[in-house]
Design a protein that fits this description.
The chain is globular and about 35 Å long. The strands form 2 sheets. A 4-stranded mixed beta sheet has the order 5-2-1-6. A two-stranded antiparallel ribbon has the order 3-4. It is of the alpha+beta class and 126 residues long. The longest helix has 7 residues.
Length: 126
C-alpha cells in the first residue's frame, strides 16, 4: 500500500457479508488511480447491479470492489492488507442490516444505507 486510503468503513449489507464470509465487512477505500494490484485483478463479476468485485483467481479471496455510486474509488477488504492494524474504520454503512447479535461498541457514525455521502467526504486515516 503506497497511498493512504481515502476512507475506512464497516459494511453490514448482506452482499458484503456474503462476499467476505464474515458477519461484517471492513474496507479501505482508495482513489482508483492509487491502487496497483500485482498481479492484475483480472475480470470482475457482479451479483448486484452497479457493484463489481474481484476475487483472487487462485484462492478466491475477496480482493477489491467498485460501486457505481462511488465513482473514482476502489474498496479493498482490510483482511488482505498488511497494514490493516493501522487502518481504523470511520463509519458503519448499512447499519440497518447489521446482524442483531453483532455488538461493536464504538462511537462511529452509522448510516442506514450505503453512507455514500460520508464515504466521499470522510478524511483519510493519515
Amino acid at each position: 500500500m503506497s497511498s493512504a486510503p481515502q476512507v475506512v468503513a464497516y459494511c453490514h449489507c448482506t452482499d458484503c457479508r456474503r462476499w467476505t464470509g464474515g458477519p461484517v465487512g471492513a474496507f479501505a477505500g482508495f482513489a482508483a488511480g492509487d491502487l496497483v494490484a500485482t498481479p492484475e485483478l483480472g475480470p470482475s463479476f457482479s451479483c448486484v447491479t452497479g457493484v463489481y468485485r474481484w476475487s483472487c483467481q487462485t484462492c478466491s479471496s475477496p480482493l477489491a470492489a467498485t460501486f457505481d455510486y462511488l465513482t473514482g474509488q476502489i474498496y479493498v477488504p482490510l483482511g488482505v492488507l498488511d497494514q490493516a492494524a493501522d487502518l481504523k474504520p470511520q463509519i458503519h454503512c448499512h447499519e440497518d442490516a447489521r446482524l442483531p447479535w453483532l455488538k461493536i461498541t464504538d462511537e462511529l457514525p452509522c448510516a442506514s444505507g450505503s453512507g455514500r455521502e460520508a464515504l466521499r467526504s470522510t478524511p483519510s486515516n493519515e
